[in-house]
Specification:
membrane, mainly alpha, 4 helices, DUF3899 domain-containing protein, elongated
Length: 117
């Protein structure tokens, strides 16, 4: 049984193929619709990469410097072991990132196939 992100991903790919066929019926060459699908696929891959990196805890342990005379900031003292355990945690790929990566990769493949014809 397909999960929700798989269903949406295959639906987006099918919608891309349908749009390409409609554009071909309206007189546009297949290369134009292939390029369009390729660019949308690249945008979805970038969104998917951003969503994966957003869960990567890249900014854990950054400290804010206080100026002379200011009170200590609440998050100024961060334990080294806490930062290490958070940064070494496994990468979590959210369903939204999986959808973006699946749909983007599928649209890129469809775009390349349409450009070749």
């Amino acid at each position: 049984m397909q999960k929700n992100w798989q269903r949406w991903g295959t639906g987006v790919i099918a919608a891309g193929v349908l749009v390409a066929l409609v554009l071909h019926v309206l007189g546009q060459p297949l290369m134009v619709s292939g390029n369009l699908l390729f660019m949308i696929g690249l945008a979805l891959l970038v969104v998917g990469a951003i969503l994966v990196l957003a869960r990567g805890h890249l900014f854990t342990g950054w400290r804010h410097r206080r100026r002379k005379g200011m009170d200590p900031l609440p998050g100024e003292k961060v334990g080294v072991r806490h930062v290490a355990s958070v940064k070494n945690s496994p990468i979590r790929v959210t369903p939204g990132a999986r959808f973006s990566l699946l749909a983007g990769g599928g649209l890129i493949v469809v775009g390349i196939i349409l450009t070749l014809f």
